[in-house]
Amino acid sequence: MLVAVLGVGCGRQPRSVVRTEMHMGTLVSVRIDGLDYAAAQPHLDAAFAAIRAVDERFSNYKPDSELSRLNAAAAEAPQPVSPEMAALLQRARHWGARSGGAFDCTVGPLMRAWGFFQREGRIPAPEELADARALTGWAHVTFDAEARTVAFDAAGVELDFGAIAKGLAVDDAIAALRARGVEHALVDASGNFAALGTPADRPVWRIGIRHPLRKDAIIADLEFQAGEGIATSGGYENYFEVDGTRYVHIIDPRTGRPVEGMLSTSVIAPNATDADALSTATFVLGVDRSLELIRGEPHTECLLVSGSPNDPASLEVHMTDGMRARTHLHLDEGP
Ligand code: AMP
Ligand code: MG
After folding, report:
1. Distance from the CA of 18 to the CA of which of 98, 177, 192, 234 falls in 20 to 30 A?
2. Which residues pair with 269 in a beta bridge?
3. Is residue 187 in contact with ligand 1, taking CB distance under 6 Å?
4. Rounded to whole angstroms, how far apart are CA atoms 258 and 129?
5. Half-sphere exposure (Cβ direction) of 96: Cα atoms closer than 13 Å
6. pTM value?
7. 86: part of which helix (H) or strand (E)?
């Protein structure tokens, strides 16, 4: 566990207390402004407890998570699920339908076939890919909302909430902080953000969007408020290369293959869960269909970076008008 304390003992300087921990395979940090170190600690504990609870329920790396147990058993008989599982399933299906199937939390078999689940990327043989595709799609999942049960129609069907659970963890952490009366906070789970109030020293939060082709550089910074979530999906997060071609961890369910042509997608939505789902959906949908989808959603904006990772000159940034109005691009700044 890493603990950073900023601004303590700086007289009239506003204070920030930041705690960073590893969860869901990534760094998660919670920042509280306006409280001193000791006062912030129980709030940070509560925020991380909320994050841990999401991970323990929705991880498909932890064999005893509710999701892993569901994946292991739902082909045999309908399995009762928690209200939290039912709610996330509904949200995931909603975005699946809205995105025309681009967002698809049944991609588990494809993630395995491409080796991402095992963290050893590989190109599957054509039969293996065909088998994984045959096990993908919501048609294999029966969700009985009344009885709150889930059943799969074949062994090997696998739900994967990797594209939405980090956003949920951020929303739950914010809810925990709000319930405790915290007024100024920012939660960041690997590029999935939500906030409470404002920073102690400024009227608005500013979030940096990572440059998809330059490590440690940002491509944009933008204004961000409480009551919103923002998420970025990036090809750089998890990928492998074979013969100069990059294979990224976001799969186009229509082809069963890693998405090509998108470098990163950032979406602002009314909460971090929806932002997370939509960042992944837009990554799959490409520029034109993403702009159309996002323009049709209330209080939702996007910044899309398309191009090839092998050709920096191919990089293009596309934004909705509302995003442009609050974003400062850093395109011409050196490497
Ligand atoms: P994110 O970083 O939020 O874009 O999520 C990426 C993760 O979502 C991947 O590591 C997979 O676990 C999962 N995933 C990959 N492709 C899709 C897809 N088309 N729809 C939903 N989830 C996906
Ligand atoms: Mg996502």
Report:
1. 234
2. 229
3. no
4. 12
5. 21
6. 0.95
7. helix 83-98
Mutate to test the pocket of ligand 1, among 60, 93, 105, 160 (most ligand atoms within 8 A of CB): 160
Q: Quote the ligand 2 centre to 276 CA distance (angstroms).
A: 4
Positive/negative CA dihedral, 266, 196, 90, 293:
negative
Q: What is the pLDDT of residues 23-56, one digit of tens each?
A: 999 999 999 999 999 999 999 999 999 999 999 9
Residue 11 neighbours by CB under 8 Å, 6+ apart: none
| 288 CB burial (10 A radius; 0-12, 13-18, 19+) | exposed
- In the chain, the largest separation of any two C-alpha atoms, in whole Å, equals 66
Query: Best substitution site from 250, 260, 282, 290 to test ligand 1's pocket, by max atoms within 8 Å of Cβ?
Result: 250
Q: Is 280 in the pocket of ligand 1 (CB under 6 A)?
A: yes
Going by C-alpha positions, the residue among 96, 74, 57 that lies closest to residue 144 is: 74
Q: How far, in Å, are 154, 168, 281 from residue 126 at the CA level? A: 20, 35, 25
Report pLDDT digits (tens) over 53-68: 999 999 999 999 999 9
What is residue 276's DSSP assignment? Answer: H
- Relative orientation angle of helices 272-285 and 83-98, to the nearest 10 degrees: 40
3-state class percentages of the chain: helix first, strand second, coil last, to nearest 5 = 35, 30, 40
User: Which contiguous run of DSSP H or E holds residue 265?
Assistant: strand 262-269
CA distance 253 to 238: 18
From the CB of 105, is ligand 1 less than 6 Å away?
yes
Q: How many CB atoms lie within 10 A of CB 27?
A: 13
Token pair recorded at residue 262: 């998108």
- Check residue 153 and report its DSSP letter: S
- Return the ligand 1 atom nearest residue 167 CA: 3
Neighbours of ion ligand 2 (CB under 5 A): 163, 276, 279-280
Query: Which atom of ligand 1 has the smallest separation from the CA of 191?
Result: 2
